[in-house]
Amino acid sequence: MSLPTPTLHAERLLLRPFTDADADDLFALQSNARVLRYWDSPPWTDRSQIARFMNGCRQMADEGSGARVAITCKSDGAFVGWCTFNGWNPDFRSASFGYCLKEAAWGRGYATEAARVLLHWAFDSLDLNRVQSETDTRNVASARVLEKLGFIREGTLREDCIVNGDVSDSWVYGLLRRDWAG
């Protein structure tokens, strides 16, 4: 079962399927060590990783396992980052959620705005009961975004990731349909 990647409108943002025109912006984002310092994989060093990412987007849509969208500003079309639902399980009515934004977008409310519209789509279109997200315990800003959206911290995954020899813990967050304020 396929899951067409949605195009969604927020107040200041457009969430849409990735296109080939996003390649340079995507590489700049994913190769930025500061942006990925709390990520579960190292920054990209090879442009071939763009094709793997784009193929992963298409594969999620084709398999019906999730949706990954580019986030752009409505005012000028500037690339802001991306967010995703993956691991969609229609039987359990659950999915995982994540996002990655470029540094210039931090602290402007874009993550919360984009996440809210994507969560709204997911709860309505996919009939979700639960959405899960994880963040590095050192990433306080990301934890704040999740908490603003109504996610509840449910636990800690100790030594969950080792990236370039750096061991880190992750917080697990969950958002249930009954707690979703929209």
Structure overview:
The protein is α+β, with helices and mostly antiparallel strands. Helix content is 27%, strand content 34%. It has four helices and eight strands; from the N terminus they run ββααβββαβαββ. The chain has helices spanning 23-30, 48-63, 110-125, 140-148; strands at residues 8-9, 13-16, 67-73, 79-89, 94-101, 130-136, 152-163, 166-176. An eight-stranded mixed beta sheet has the order 1-2-3-4-5-6-8-7, sandwiched between helices. The longest helix is centred in the N-terminal third of the chain and has 16 residues, at 48-63. The two termini are 27 Å apart. The relative contact order is 0.16.
**Shape summary:** globular
The number of distinct helices, counting runs of at least 4 residues, comes to 4
Query: End-to-end span in angstroms?
Result: 27 Å
Helix content: 25-40%
Low-confidence stretches: none
How do the strands of the widest beta sheet line up side by side? 1-2-3-4-5-6-8-7
Main sheet record: 8 strands, mixed
Summarize the helix and strand pattern as letters. EEHHEEEHEHEE
* Radius of gyration of CA atoms, rounded to a whole number: 16 Å
**Binned strand content:** 25-35%
Rounded mean pLDDT score = 93
Structural class: alpha+beta
Task: List the keywords.
4 helices; 8 strands; 182 residues; single chain; eight-stranded mixed beta sheet; alpha+beta
Summarize the structure.
The protein has 182 residues and is an alpha+beta fold. The chain contains four helices and eight strands; from the N terminus they run ββααβββαβαββ. Helix content is 27%, strand content 34%.
